[in-house]
Amino acid sequence: MHIDLRQLRHFIALAEHRSFVAAADAVCLSQSAFSRSIQALEHSAGCRLVDRASKELNPTKQGLIVLEHARRLVSGAHKLANEIALFNGLEAGELRFGAGPAPAAWLVPRAIAAFNGRYPKARVAFQVEHWQVLGKRLQGEDFEFFVADTRHFEANPEYRTLRLKPRKWHFCCRPGHPLAGRGTVSAAELLSYPIATNLSPPNLRKVLVDLSGRPDFRPDIECENGHGLNAVVLASNAIGIASGLGQGVGEPLVALTVAELPEDLEELHTRYGIVYRAGYSLSPLAEAMIGELQRIDEETV
DNA sequence: ATCTACCTGTAATAAGCGAC
DNA sequence: GTCGCTTATTACAGGTAGAT
């Protein structure tokens, strides 16, 4: 029997998702390619591993045996890679991780700068993605971890999360804006100006829906990143959002307090953290980078 | 450089299921 | 029965890595 770790990973995904489509999606394959990968594994095993007649796509008795060993082998392969990386030291390795738009704008660049100072020969690659893509790419093993909003992952047993400090965000405008210097404004006053947002924080939409009383409320201007958002807010009468951190905000933008929003409202706080796969140990490089992320997060007021 | 085997994606098709 | 949807399978073609 020829053992292919990739096929074993596909079989594990099928057992977890109980759907060819969902499992294929999870491992970033087309459904047909995934189906043939499972077929190839079954051909190697010389027997059916999945009961296609059952709606739940239950593993057959042989499938259960293969599944048990597959989990052990895949986990062992990961640990082997980690130990080799440890043996080789941190200097020549490569670290790949992901980030949501907001952490990518302020926390990640600082952490990479500090990390690069400590491990100048290590290669670092990070990509900014929406949380759904981050989750998929983590399961597809494209990333070792990602730093983003954690609320979609905290209750999922497939993930482990390390929370970062919650930070309050607020609405803001340019200096000289009709609302600047008012201190507190009403929701009606705020919403009489164009609302400009980026992709974060995720709970922003709920706040805007509550403030406007309109379930279908959509921002007038949507920007891909914090820097673009700042530029729009500085050049117009649009109302933006800022967490007071490195999205370059704080200064020179002017913070606005909305009368209808309690200061301690949960939705007014970020919930960022580090997410990695449960059951998998992190490489020394990943642990070092996470250490830098946590240290900078802790030190940043 | 060429051949070969293998892997993958696209498109088409079949089967199952629920709603009408 | 039929229509629409979802899911699984198959045929075909293209890309790539390894062997020669």
Automatic annotation (TrEMBL):
<protein>
    <submittedName>
        <fullName>Transcriptional regulator, LysR family</fullName>
    </submittedName>
</protein>
<dbReference type="InterPro" id="IPR005119">
    <property type="entry name" value="LysR_subst-bd"/>
</dbReference>
<dbReference type="GO" id="GO:0003677">
    <property type="term" value="F:DNA binding"/>
</dbReference>
<dbReference type="InterPro" id="IPR036390">
    <property type="entry name" value="WH_DNA-bd_sf"/>
</dbReference>
<dbReference type="Pfam" id="PF00126">
    <property type="entry name" value="HTH_1"/>
</dbReference>
<keyword id="KW-0804">Transcription</keyword>
<dbReference type="InterPro" id="IPR050950">
    <property type="entry name" value="HTH-type_LysR_regulators"/>
</dbReference>
<comment type="similarity">
    <text>Belongs to the LysR transcriptional regulatory family.</text>
</comment>
<dbReference type="GO" id="GO:0005829">
    <property type="term" value="C:cytosol"/>
</dbReference>
<dbReference type="Pfam" id="PF03466">
    <property type="entry name" value="LysR_substrate"/>
</dbReference>
<dbReference type="InterPro" id="IPR000847">
    <property type="entry name" value="LysR_HTH_N"/>
</dbReference>
<keyword id="KW-0238">DNA-binding</keyword>
<dbReference type="GO" id="GO:0003700">
    <property type="term" value="F:DNA-binding transcription factor activity"/>
</dbReference>
<dbReference type="InterPro" id="IPR036388">
    <property type="entry name" value="WH-like_DNA-bd_sf"/>
</dbReference>
<keyword id="KW-0805">Transcription regulation</keyword>
<feature type="domain" description="HTH lysR-type">
    <location>
        <begin position="3"/>
        <end position="60"/>
    </location>
</feature>
